[in-house]
């Protein structure tokens, strides 16, 4: 996940934006979300959904991807409504339920950002190596150097690069659409007969991973709008701004999915763009966009570490996360990029499902509060237990190459990973849906069963009032 196009970036470090400092129309959310999601990773996710010769093919792969995308975008659009109502960023908003235990989901957030960093590092290196013909090590140094520079200079540079990259990415997307117009997708595997339930559900999960995973950052964008902004308008424009780029780019990826594309995604993109200087420049831009996305991930993780009490400068915290992502990228450099994409976009996003379940129960219970940020969490233990238990309980419903490998090689400790997916759904995962349902059910029950322990209200002097 990444966001290099956040409006009003100067308020990103504030937990709450005051009503006097807000402006804009919900229409701007569509352009902002489109800028965020016009990214190479969306194309690659589409390739994985169709699966090459081992997948369901374009029709079932894109159909599942589209279904998951639409459901996930509905969730993000719905929770975005609370941005204008509260002026709060998404993770601080989660403190309404988690209270002092808000660090628990933040740990999961940081781990997921490290995983996404590793994937972006590898794809960025892939793009630069293909476009410039340089060795892996040199391309990796270039990607990391861009990332570090953006981390050091912070939000202002992210905002400038985000505007430039989003504009260029729009051109590249149109270019890709024109390129694929004259081609046909690979046919579905010959051995496939009937409805491929497992592969279809895997495509649905990939669609959810690219959409519902954004619920942990949804209000970061909408909170800068005036408090009286239409909830219907926020929902509509967020939904449109997310679904259109996700479906278009995911569709392109599914359309051009082959075994070779899964092994070298950026090579397949280069093939579509053609030869010549313009194609090389386009791939360089893709590499820079991935490095910039990583810088925003580092920035977000650095802020989370600071909020958790780590007494280091934000830049130092961000560089620690960048180093961890780099280390994971180096360790994973010989792994199939198709399998690695499936592992990371699923595993790194699963935690958002029970988090969303907990958060939405809390927000709905406070829907009549005019100033919900002034009311402390009533049962932070219930929220933390529901979140962690929901995450553990969803694991049998997951379907990832890594999870299946662990279950096969180490059946005693890990055999329960994905067993429902393998035994009931023909290898297809339903972890995101299960996670949301577990989060909702557990928190709704536990917040009534466990004794209320309202926490002392934190002073708001550090917030923007």
From TrEMBL:
Taxonomy, top ranks, is: unclassified sequences, metagenomes, ecological metagenomes
Which sequence ranges are marked TM in the entry?
Answer: 30-52, 58-84, 96-119, 131-153, 160-182, 194-214, 234-256, 276-296, 316-338, 344-364, 384-407, 427-446
Membrane topology type: Multi-pass membrane protein
Report one GO cellular component: plasma membrane
Name the InterPro entries on file: Pur-cyt_permease, Pur-cyt_permease_Fcy2/21/22
Q: Which family does it belong to?
A: Belongs to the purine-cytosine permease (2.A.39) family.
A Pfam family for this UniProt protein?
Transp_cyt_pur
A single GO molecular-function term is:
transmembrane transporter activity
Protein name, per record: Unannotated protein
Per UniProt, the keywords (alphabetical) are: Membrane, Transmembrane, Transmembrane helix, Transport
Xref: PANTHER family: PURINE-CYTOSINE PERMEASE FCY2-RELATED
The region called Disordered is annotated at 1-24
Q: Where in the cell is it found?
A: Membrane
Q: Which organism is it from?
A: freshwater metagenome
Taking the first listed entry, what is the main subcellular location of this protein, grouped into a coarse class? Answer: membrane
């Amino acid at each position: 996940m990444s966001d290099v196009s956040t409006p009003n970036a100067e308020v990103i470090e504030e937990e709450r934006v005051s009503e006097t400092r807000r402006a804009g129309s919900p229409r701007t959310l569509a352009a902002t979300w489109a800028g965020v999601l016009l990214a190479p990773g969306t194309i690659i996710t589409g390739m994985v959904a169709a699966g090459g010769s081992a997948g369901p093919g374009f029709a079932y792969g894109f159909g599942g991807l589209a279904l998951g995308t639409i459901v996930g975008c509905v969730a993000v659009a719905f929770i975005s409504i609370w941005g204008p109502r509260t002026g709060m960023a998404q993770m601080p908003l989660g403190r309404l339920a988690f209270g002092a235990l808000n660090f628990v989901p933040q740990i999961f957030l940081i781990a997921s950002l490290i995983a996404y960093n590793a994937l972006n590092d590898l794809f960025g290196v892939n793009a630069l190596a293909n476009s410039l013909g340089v060795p892996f090590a040199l391309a990796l140094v270039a990607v990391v150097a861009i990332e570090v520079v953006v981390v050091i200079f912070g939000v202002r540079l992210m905002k400038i690069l985000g505007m430039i990259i989003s504009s260029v990415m729009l051109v590249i997307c149109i270019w890709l659409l024109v390129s694929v117009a004259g081609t046909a997708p690979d046919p579905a595997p010959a051995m496939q007969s009937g409805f491929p339930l497992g592969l279809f559900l895997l495509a649905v999960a990939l669609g959810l991973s690219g959409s519902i995973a954004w619920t942990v950052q949804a209000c970061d964008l909408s909170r800068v709008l005036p408090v009286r902004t239409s909830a219907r308008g926020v929902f509509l424009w967020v939904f449109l701004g997310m679904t259109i780029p996700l479906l278009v780019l995911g569709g392109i990826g599914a359309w051009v999915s082959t075994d070779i594309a899964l092994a070298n995604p950026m090579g397949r993109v280069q093939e579509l763009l053609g030869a010549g200087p313009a194609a090389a420049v386009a791939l360089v831009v893709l590499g820079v966009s991935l490095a910039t996305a990583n810088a925003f991930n580092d920035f977000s993780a650095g802020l989370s570490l600071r909020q958790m009490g780590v007494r280091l400068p934000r830049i130092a915290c961000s560089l620690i996360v960048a180093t961890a992502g780099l280390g994971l990228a180096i360790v994973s450099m010989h792994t199939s990029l198709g399998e690695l994409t499936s592992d990371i976009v699923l595993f790194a996003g699963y935690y958002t499902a029970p988090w969303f379940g907990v958060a939405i129960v809390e927000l709905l219970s406070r829907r009549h509060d005019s100033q919900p940020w002034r009311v402390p969490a009533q049962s932070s233990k219930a929220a933390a237990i529901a979140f962690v238990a929901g995450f553990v309980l969803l694991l049998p419903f997951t379907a990832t190459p890594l999870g299946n490998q662990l279950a096969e090689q180490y059946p005693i400790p890990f055999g329960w990973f994905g067993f429902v997916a393998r035994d009931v759904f023909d290898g297809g995962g339903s972890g995101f849906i299960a996670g949301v349902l577990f989060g909702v059910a557990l928190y709704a029950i536990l917040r009534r069963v466990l004794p209320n322990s309202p926490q002392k209200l934190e002073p708001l002097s550090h917030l923007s009032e």
